[in-house]
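User: My instructor asked us to take a sequence, write out its structure as tokens, and then describe one feature of it. I'm not sure where to start. Here is the sequence I was given:
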Amino acid sequence: MLLGVVVFSPPAVLPAADDLNATALALVPEDAAFMSTSVNLGDQWREIADSRLIRRIRSVPYVQQVAVLLRAQWEAGEGQVGQARAMLQNPNVQGVVKLLTEMMGDEMFIYGDQDWCGAIEGLVQFQRRVNATMSQGPEAMESLLQELTPADVANLYVPTTVIGFRIQDDNHARNQLDALEGILRLGLRDVPQAQPFLDQLKRTDFADGQSLALKLDWSMVPAADLGDEQRAAFERARELLSDRQLTIEVGMKSKVLMVAVSGRSGVIAEMGSAPKKLIDHPALDVLKQAAPDRLRGISFASEEMSEATWMANASSYFQNIAAQFSGAAMKEFDSEEEFEEWESQIERDATWLDQKVLEMKPDFGPVVGWTHAIDGGYQSFVYNFTKDHWLKNAAPLHVLNHAGQNPVALLAVKYQYPRQFRQIIDYLLEKAPEHIGRFVRLAERDPDSRRQAVKAVRLGAPVIKDAIEVCLDKLAPAMGSNETMLVFDADWLISDFGPSAPPLPKPLPVPEVAVVCSVADRAGFQTAMDELFDVLDRLVDVVREVDPSAVPAGYTIPRPTAEEVGRATRYSYPQIAQSVPLPGFNPQYSLGQDVVAFGYSDRQIRELVEEQKLVNRPAWLTPDFPLAGMCYADWAEKVRVFRAWVETGLMFASGGELDRPLGPATGGFPTPTGNDVLQLWDSLTALGKFAATTQVQDDGSTVSRSVWLGE
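Assistant: Let's start with the prediction itself. The structure tokens for your sequence are:
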């Protein structure tokens, strides 16, 4: 799988594909909101049991010692293990265990009906309305409850969700369902409080299965036990939601054991009866064409679900914030007329902003993904047919040339801004000072404090606007191709925590985090940074004018010290670096030939501004591969890097004797030593590496591909 130390990839030739018709795709209706299924579970469990990680853990002497003791207790029937063995010998328990084993042996899926689309949007919008009203106080909440109409709560219902398990011995599963019904009816028949529930417990038999359903409605709520205020709220809620119910079903159909939660009955009986199934959905063609072997999982989200999720979060976003803001501000107004005038201005501005957000609404499409096993790991694909407005391909993604050879993790992306984004920023810069100033005048009751705060807003708003415009109009264009990368590393070693601290037993790695951005105009970037510092000086002047005692006369923002380091120019504050007793600590930005790196580790920044390409990368990531984003994580390296911290902690915990048990033995089992813990820690290097890429297609949809390989 590893070609030298450079690339990792799946095998080029795959055997015959798995049969998609044997999965939940052929059971779930085509109009599903979402579906996710794990298939070939038996193979997955075997892969886990035979994985490098489990093999390494089992090879640890301490684990082997504990396994021998567990086996001895099992065979002798002693201790908690012996009690577990005795329990498992009970025929009733064995029947349940057999069913659970079958449930985990073939396929497990979760499916959400199309009614999820309306429910998720309706719930979020109603929650926002409640939050906005809560800011106005308890009386406003009481008024809202009385003003609500059935139309206001039309989308407040329990969406249909089904969890299913494919099994082979359906007769055994039906027997277990019969046993469950018998236990419930016999065990609860003499409990008065349980009678309303038993009355709603209904069994249904159909051609290829059966179900047991419990329907819960408003009549089952003990309203008589509520206080007067609670009862009034309950009666109002029941009036609004009188037709709502919650049904919990468990049943068998077509050799699939299912648990359904819904606002309606008969869900399990309906499964598989739709004229068109999810496997017939056009979006699934990409999966059929790929025909993956050793399939492990499939996921799907409909176009409607994608849109409903977006609308739930983005629709009327600013208007909801404005409503909460207005509710809080209303308490401070002495004049209702003045408040209504301001409220109308806030609503007008919020409506304009929300319209711009809606203009950025993507052209939604479904999402299809799958995972299949490869030698030593797994590979996944996700096809998102939504037209993306924010990502853009680069060929190549240039910042990856400055990732350092072996970072612990990174996230790189090339992005673009829709035109509405800048329009929203400009509108906020224009309108926000007026609203903030008016709110400050209300919030500050002390005349002197109010006068000072209003002055700060009046003088500071233009300066902040200039700072943002420098960033948008000068700094961003100088950075050119809009490529940004977040890099995590840990090659910076320290031997102590300062001159007065004792030396460490061994050098410890310090986490390093840096941001790397592309730069198209090196001189323009530094000019923009100089202008930004000038603007910050003006902000200091504003603070001084508002409160002369806050800032000494003549004080300006210190400029960083420039220093040539190789082909880059480092801008840092030596006085800050000297105040932290960690050699190599130096907050800075370093301007290279085509990138700028922001961070605090001298070592890491020097490496990043020089061109050092990523060594470990997916085989498909060739130099000319169009790429909008990539993430990479070397889990094995993370384990190795932080081993020194684990070892140091164990040294302190054990008094420097790693062969000594870390505590007294309990339950007949030995306590691990520090070395035992280190051996277990070392086995985690089998977690290997992960990499994923995202590519924008010609039609705006995206394809993401990922691979994980154990080590």
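For the description part of your assignment, you could build on this observation: The CA atoms of residues 544 and 550 lie 6 Å apart. Try explaining in your own words what that tells you about the chain.
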